[in-house]
Please model this.
Amino acid sequence: MVIQEQIRIQTRGRNTYNITGEVSEAIGRAGIETGICQLFIQHTSASLILCENADPSVRTDLERIMSRLVPDGDPIFDHTLEGPDDMPAHVRSILTHMDLSLPISQGRPALGTWQGIYLWEHRTHPHQRNVTLTL
Amino acid sequence: MVIQEQIRIQTRGRNTYNITGEVSEAIGRAGIETGICQLFIQHTSASLILCENADPSVRTDLERIMSRLVPDGDPIFDHTLEGPDDMPAHVRSILTHMDLSLPISQGRPALGTWQGIYLWEHRTHPHQRNVTLTL
Amino acid sequence: MVIQEQIRIQTRGRNTYNITGEVSEAIGRAGIETGICQLFIQHTSASLILCENADPSVRTDLERIMSRLVPDGDPIFDHTLEGPDDMPAHVRSILTHMDLSLPISQGRPALGTWQGIYLWEHRTHPHQRNVTLTL
Model:
């Protein structure tokens, strides 16, 4: 049995957005007890991560270290058509994940206690993002 | 057909732990000839990687480069509640993988000759880690 | 229903190689309308990425930033048996992806408009690379 649906997320620019609720609801609607939930983001400048979900400073720290590893406006980049965050957004997406597969147990995503599913918007401007769920 | 089981690994602190044997045995027990084996670690400070399995210096070198990219005790981190390795463990997990999908061929994980499956413990203290296998 | 096939790619050394066509053709041959396509590279010194497919400078910039994060010939590396690009190739593979799962919709990989599937050869010399597709 394969069920596919789309989750649309309107971002307000660079930040992490918790989508655990949307994913859990889609699994609940499908009525699947045991299986795999495959998430896929159809973009190259936003990504999917599993991150600690209790202390918000984890996600601001994550933003800081990523900005140091892949700085906006770095002079080594030629691809700057859409601004100083254009190429860094592609690199950040590739260094993290555009696909994510989660086990489903007892009708829910089998996440650890501290795991949340986040969409990470890497562009500074707001974007409409599309995630495909395949169950 | 979906089979799910848990692998529990007791780590002795920051290091890589070869779990290829445990994964192969679970696939063997399930009796699946062709398919997909999905691994998922239910933590945010340890991760799953595929790594060269012949020369142990690959894994010590990996540890060194990761310690340089994401140093313990870096002053940019606010989330230091559990010590200088707390936030770096989250970043290392996100830069590597919490999920891993492997093809199964002829009843075994279809790994390349030099590929081994490792759990990478990022915390300096020992931890009990849980990996969910969905076949 | 599970279908498995091999894609063989002869690389000409370090570079990105678009394999979107090969993957789409395999999905077409299998005749699967809705499902998951799992890609797996059976090597530890080449990887699979989803990358912007319009402007080639994205991929040259990607090469540059990766060469800065994980430089060839870095003196911290002990594992240098096969040359200065040996250990960096392992690290680059782990920081990107050896597995990739894509949704299949309407008989095709459900990629975003700007997403292409690339094999990233990290060794400077040409290699024969093997990717397993499980549908």
